[in-house]
Amino acid sequence: MIIAPGSATLAQLRAIMQGEALELPQGWQAPLEQSVAALAARIASGEALYGVNTGFGKLASQRIGSADLAKLQLNLLRSHAAGIGSFMPEPVVRLILALKAMSLARGASAVRPVVVQTLLGLLNAGVLPAIPAKGSVGASGDLAPLAHLSLVLIGEGQARVEGTTVSGAEALRLAGLPPVALGPKEGLALLNGTQVSTALALVGLFQAQDLLHTGLTAGAMSVDAARGSDTPFDPRIHALRGQPGQIEAAATLRRLLDGSAIRESHRTGDTRVQDPYCLRCQPQVMGACADQLAHAATVLQREANAVTDNPLVTAEGEVLSGGNFHAEPVAFAADNIALAVAEIGALAERRIALLTDPVLSGLPAFLVREGGLNSGFMIAQVTAAALASENKSLAHPRSVDSMPTSANQEDHVSMATGAALRLAEMADNTAGILAIELLAAAQGIGFHRPLTSSPPVEQAVAMVRSQAAPWDEDRHMAPDIAAVKALVEAGDFAALAEGRG
Q1: Which residues carry this modification: 2,3-didehydroalanine (Ser) (predicted)?
Q2: Which pLDDT tens digit goes with each residue over 70-100?
Q3: 499/224 Cα distance (integer angstroms)
Q4: Residues with catalytic annotation?
Q5: What local confidence, expressed as pLDDT, does residue 153 receive?
């Protein structure tokens, strides 16, 4: 895939995350060579340039002699590789490499083409730096994790190759790449930037988008399982409010339920006037989540294409010190994704509770015959409640926190990396909740046989049944949940809501 620096789409970024190779268009090297030459001229003039011939952070007033400029960049990588924790997942690292390469390739960072070529070489060879997940506060860039990434470029640190951890030197050998000898500013350009927090947030966004569509599929199933009404999805209701996500969510639910014989069977004579909110207000809640995710997607696409290191070198040769490394936009976007993921799961948990309550659903208690002898979905609903509760705690905004660093030189930070890191755990929780709802809704629809639901809902039921038999009597529940959760994470149920099933 060829992408011009600064023009990546979300679909292209998702493809890179999933293993697509990345190339840059012909002639991409020229802006980099121009910026390197401009920086060299400024260095030769004897001017003090932050991070080029000075120390870093609080040490910016310390001048560095010309003989030590290369060592300055090398020391920077080594000293800043201070992360801890488990290694970041491979899809995240793929995105980090791609985002860093495309940012540097815009030609405002004064790095030589060989640096970008090495980043792309590692990405396309599947040789991925081993990056500890924790240690960044999301301002002055994602310094620690990017330092661990950058060590591999010089033949140090560690990398992961087909699940095995190897040395940085071995990683370069396997990728067929020579180690990079860093030039002035190149270490700083590699470490500065928001690529780690942005990559984490993008993966969280992609997961959240799939969960949203899975939630709509599961919600439609639950409507029919509970013999709910499709009137709340009437387009006239949503047009009067005008919220775009709500309008789209209602349209999706109408399409998913269109042609349901279960719905037709109780269109007249049903004494219930209105369904509980977890059924009736799905467009309003899921639509609001969709709008949050759409805004986050816009922010993250911009950030993925941005130049976020410091200082920057303009086309005219000026060296500008600024703060594009401050990841506040990413922190806000990640917090909004977290809110959406939590609400998708919270609403699904309420639908599970409805389905297992015979007073509300009209179905057998806990969705099983011979209740008492069998407990059915009793504890599966408890598991869903536990996961939803955990997500509520995890959804607390991280962007409102700040802890001064670097002897108060860096006195306000975004916490974007932590904001984005927790999205994976939240997505895992919500995938578990949705798996339980899909099982419960399929069980509920089974009680209405021989009536059938709509073609898309029946397809979803068949997908559930491909992994888990109907619940005729108590058995181990965990394997069924795990099997259906795997389909959720693969996006199979999301495809139905998107019209791709």
Answers
A1: 140
A2: 888 999 899 999 999 999 999 999 999 999 9
A3: 19
A4: 50
A5: 98
> Does residue 227 carry a pLDDT above 90?
yes
Predicted local distance difference test score (pLDDT) of residue 407: 63
Token duo for residue 66: 């010309």
Residue ranges matching CATH 1.20.200.10 in the chain:
201-400+413-497
Residues 6+ apart with CB under 8 A from 86: 132, 133
Predicted model pTM:
0.96
Burial of 98-135, coded b for 16+ CB within 10 Å and e otherwise, reads bbbbbbbbbbbbbbbbbbbbbbbbbbbbbbbbbbbbeb
Q: Chain-centre distance of CA 55, in angstroms?
A: 35
- Of all residues in the chain, the percent with pLDDT exceeding 70 is 98
Decide which of 1.10.275.10, 1.20.120.1200, 3.40.50.300, 3.30.1370.10 is the CATH code for 10-192: 1.10.275.10
Q: How far apart are CA 315 and CA 77, in angstroms?
A: 27
For the chain, what's the residue count?
Answer: 501
d(CA 467, CA 179): 48
Closest alpha carbon to 172 in 114, 95, 92, 88: 114
Residue intervals in the chain for CATH 1.10.275.10:
10-192
Least confident of 32-41, 264-273, 288-297, 414-423: 264-273
* Helices marked H in 140-194: 143-153, 168-175, 186-191
